[in-house]
């Protein structure tokens, strides 16, 4: 079984439509390539209780939890507090973080000093070329919301998540989805380890439905594709890759 | 208090990174313009138990729930079943839906016929110019995953959600976020009905931080902006709109 992950996007600006979230799709693609199964994306407000309860339930249910957003110096940056609460920990001042903040902001006020606090027992993951290190508490990794920073930090530590890859095949269909539903249903039942998706494309000229088959076992994937091709009406199968 | 909403995006293809979700941002923008507060976006797999538990908890917690995806004819289209389970209802064949499906697909097989089933007690919302009507059960509105269809259907029924609008102001800051954090903190405490956001922009040349203030009461918003401008160092405030 693949390891599972949840991504928690923290930010009122996403929920109010002011900013379009890019981080969840970036992480979805990255995790897939690493062989990790993303099982939930939750976009939640900058609210410490919401953060605490979402992080707590995800940390129990999934192998990895990635948060994005809410770690700056302002009043709405409450992710660290929420993550600490999720595990019943206190926030404690981290000297290394304080040093990094003084370097950037000068001698900080009390409000800004909150940025130097981490949940007790968490790890500051120092990485080459990264100014502000991401923080880990148990299986929860805390990332910034700014996409450029999140991408750079994730790239620097992603190898620790790498696992057996997903393999995939695609079948392009030139016909309505209802013509293939029975065949997909029977193959999905016969090969439970193969994930089968069926995606109608209304803007495509060349084909009407894209069928995807994915598995971590090459043999199961190959057999499922072969048996599905036998069931599908030949005249609507454009190509298989 | 504004009415609240949750958007549930159902689809393995989003979680595996194959498809980039566009529907949640579209709905976030639309709901904001209608004066509805989007409080959660959840992206979940095509899994009937996950759908049932997410829909059930969201329907209790928020005024409106919008689902997207999982309503076609194939094995992975289990949204209707999940929504029915969330309310402890059965799926029942709907004659009007059956008629619409026969029109499109011819006389359907048993598998395809599942598309004509709706949760008992739900409403088929017939709208001008819409072939397949969206379904409502209690406060849950079931939409398709294909963005073109979702947009068209939402546009046709959105007026029923319209409420008092959100008003907003923006302040463009040419300085580090840590220089304004104390001021934002004090205004956020003084005006709890005003939502204040602070967004560092690393790719912008003209300014470094965008501060947004939003409220449904004009007077509170105006006062919060005025008092914030008095607190901020004048030399870093570029402009206010």
Radius of gyration of chain A: 22 Å
What is the overall number of helices of chain A?
Answer: 9
CATH topology of the largest domain in chain A: Molybdenum Cofactor Biosythetic Enzyme, Chain A
Largest interface: A-B, 65 and 65 residues
Give a short account of the largest sheet of chain A. Answer: 6 strands, mixed
CATH superfamily of the largest domain in chain A: MoaB/Mog-like domain
Shape of chain A from CA axes? elongated
Helix content of chain A: 25-40%
- Low-pLDDT stretches of chain A are none
Look at the structure and give the CATH class of the largest domain in chain A. Answer: Alpha Beta
Beta strand count of chain A: 12
- The secondary structure category of chain A is alpha/beta
In percent terms, what proportion of residues of chain A is strand? 15-25%
- Count of domain modules of chain A: 2
Overall pLDDT level of chain A? 93
């Amino acid at each position: 079984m693949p390891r599972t992950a949840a991504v928690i996007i923290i930010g009122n600006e996403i929920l109010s439509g002011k900013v379009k979230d890019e981080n969840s799709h970036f992480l979805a693609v990255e995790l897939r390539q690493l062989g990790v199964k993303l099982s939930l994306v939750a976009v939640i407000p900058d609210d410490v209780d919401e953060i605490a309860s979402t992080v707590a339930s995800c940390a129990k249910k999934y192998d990895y939890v990635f948060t994005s957003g809410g770690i700056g110096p302002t009043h709405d940056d409450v992710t660290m507090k929420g993550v600490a609460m999720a595990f019943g920990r206190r926030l404690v001042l981290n000297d290394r973080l304080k040093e990094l903040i003084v370097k950037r902001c000068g001698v900080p006020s009390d409000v800004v000093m909150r940025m130097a606090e981490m949940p007790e027992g968490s790890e500051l993951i120092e990485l080459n070329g990264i100014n502000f290190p991401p923080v880990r508490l148990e299986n929860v990794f805390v990332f910034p919301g700014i996409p450029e920073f999140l991408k750079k930090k994730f790239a620097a530590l992603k190898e620790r998540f790498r696992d057996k890859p997903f393999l995939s095949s695609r079948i392009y269909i030139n016909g309505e989805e209802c013509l293939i539903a029975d065949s997909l249903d029977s193959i999905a039942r016969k090969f439970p380890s193969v994930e089968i998706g069926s995606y109608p494309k209304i803007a495509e000229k060349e084909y009407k439905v894209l069928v995807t088959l994915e598995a971590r076992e090459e043999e199961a994937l190959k057999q499922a594709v072969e048996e599905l091709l036998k069931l599908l009406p030949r005249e609507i199968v454009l190509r298989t890759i």
